[in-house]
Design brief:
Blueprint lengths: L1 H32 L9 E4 L13 H20 L1 E6 L6 E7 L5 H18 L4 E5 L3 E6 L26 H21 L6 E7 L5 E8 L5 H19 L4 E5 L3 E6 L9 E3 L3 H57 L5 E3 L5 E3 L4 E2 L2 H7 L8 E4 L3 E7 L5 E7 L6 H17 L5 E7 L2 E7 L5 H7 L2
Parallel strand pairs: 6-10, 13-17
Antiparallel strand pairs: 1-4, 2-3, 3-5, 4-5, 6-7, 7-9, 8-9, 11-12, 14-15, 15-16, 16-18, 17-18
Helix pairs in contact: 2-3, 4-5
Length: 450
């Protein structure tokens, strides 16, 4: 029984081990898919244009080509770059090799050796080029040294890259990175036309970039080539987590992981530029609701103000209508013992124009004095009768009520024969009482309390 349990335990362990052996390759498969094998070329270009033809097997051109390719590994490994030619006249072959700037001589030699074998295997044309991750080899029937004709190529591995969640910010940061290391590559002789750089992309991620030119071209050609490569990279890969563009005279690549061995330029994205995008978003998100709220509050305030003014006008009109109804009698008004206004002879409504003419437009020379509720002016009517006109304060909220009280009070006094109220006028903001003018100052005593 004990032995059976022991065998069962061993079987369980073996089963678990077998499952792990099956699962691990499946887990590693996606990771391996994103990185081409060291022996696989990134891209192979066999020129098939009209001016380019295939060479004949065992021809002088093929023999010269093999000699040239055989000399490239050892010579290129010395400095990382080498170009040469072999043969004469129409059978002459021009060749060039470049190793990535961060590899040692052994890696360089091995990569060039693999590339020369592969290009012979894949191409029969008299003009061809092959790119590996760490090196590139080119040959042609015509001299291409020191010249630059840009033809960018898109390696298949670009399609394997995952999309990035923030492509707008990636483009801003990546543009800054590539512009800086492109300038270093093209215009700083100490870089030998190779530069790498890294820059912070987010709180946890960094972008790593690499650019390189062949050393036979001028600084201007190198910079122009890298600018063209950058444009191609922008089209294919600025929404991805990595990308690479290869061409005859320059290469450009970026990743979200460190893929090179060289020391790199440590760059920082300018705060003003890096924060501008976030600030702009904050401003937009904040200002739009505040603007809408301000418009709503403003609309409510204007509406409230207009309604309040309308109510005031309506109340004023209502008061005027009520007062006019009480006073508007063709014969006049009088006061009862209870203080109510009733019809009476002698008190009439007058037009404002008549009163204006009588007081000479309320001139200062006709001003008798000023009391708590208005100013009194002396005047003469058309029939020659002297009058005293009391002009109540304009725009007074209680002017109409004062006006009515004044009429009632004076009517009472008139009833006692102390002062005579001849008429009144209401036009617009003007509220006027017209008394009989009494030179013996009894009117002054009534109005001013003297």
């Amino acid at each position: 029984m004990i032995m059976f349990n022991h065998i069962w335990k061993m079987d369980k362990k073996d089963a678990l081990l077998a499952m792990l052996l099956l699962i691990i390759p499946l887990l590693m498969r996606p990771m391996l898919a994103n990185t081409p094998a060291s022996g696989d070329p990134l891209f192979t270009f066999c020129n098939t244009e009209i001016l380019t033809k295939n060479y004949t097997l065992n021809s002088p051109f093929e023999n010269n080509l093999k000699l040239l390719l055989g000399s490239l590994p050892s010579n290129t490994s010395l400095t990382g770059f080498y170009n040469t030619s072999t043969g004469e006249d129409s059978d002459r072959v021009y060749g060039q090799a470049l190793c990535r700037g961060d590899v040692n001589s052994t890696v360089c030699r091995n990569c060039i050796q693999t590339a020369t074998k592969e290009i012979l295997k894949q191409c029969r044309s008299e003009d061809a080029m092959i790119w590996f991750e760490l090196c590139q080899v080119r040959y042609s029937f015509q001299n291409f040294f020191s010249s630059m004709v840009y033809t960018g190529k898109y390696p298949e591995q670009n399609r394997m890259q995952k999309n990035i969640s923030n492509p707008v910010h990636l483009e801003q940061v990546l543009t800054y990175l590539m512009n800086n290391i492109s300038n270093e590559t093209a215009f700083d002789p100490s870089t030998r036309m190779f530069a790498t750089g890294e820059i912070k992309f987010s709180r946890k991620k960094r972008i790593y970039g690499l650019v390189q030119c062949t050393r036979d071209i001028s600084e201007k050609y190198c910079y122009n080539c890298l600018q063209s490569a950058f444009g191609e990279l922008q089209k294919c890969c600025f929404y991805r987590q990595g990308g690479i563009i290869v061409s005859r005279n320059c290469n450009m690549r970026f990743e979200l992981y460190r893929f090179y061995n060289a020391s790199s330029f440590q760059l920082s994205f300018p705060a003003s530029q890096g924060a501008s995008w976030k600030i702009w978003m904050v401003v937009v998100v904040t200002c739009i609701p505040l603007s809408v709220l301000a418009v709503l509050i403003g609309s409510c305030a204007v509406n409230y103000h207009l309604r309040k003014k309308r109510r005031q006008r309506d109340d004023d009109k209502s008061q005027k209508a009520e007062l006019l109804h009480e006073l508007a009698s063709p014969t006049g008004v009088a006061i009862t013992q209870e203080g109510e206004l009733v019809s009476s002879e002698g008190l009439h409504f007058m037009s404002l124009s008549i009163i204006m003419a009588a007081t000479d437009g309320f001139s200062e020379s006709n001003k008798l004095g000023q009391g708590g509720f208005g100013t009194v002016y002396k005047g003469v009517l058309e029939d020659g009768k002297g009058v005293a006109v009391k002009r109540l304060s304009r725009k007074s909220w209680q002017g109409l009520e004062e006006f009515k009280n004044e009429v009632i009070l004076i009517a009472r006094l008139q009833h006692r024969n102390l002062v005579k109220l001849l008429g009144c006028a209401i036009e617009g903001e003007e509220k006027l009482l017209v008394y009989e003018f009494m030179p013996n100052r009894s009117l002054d005593f009534f109005i001013f309390g003297l």
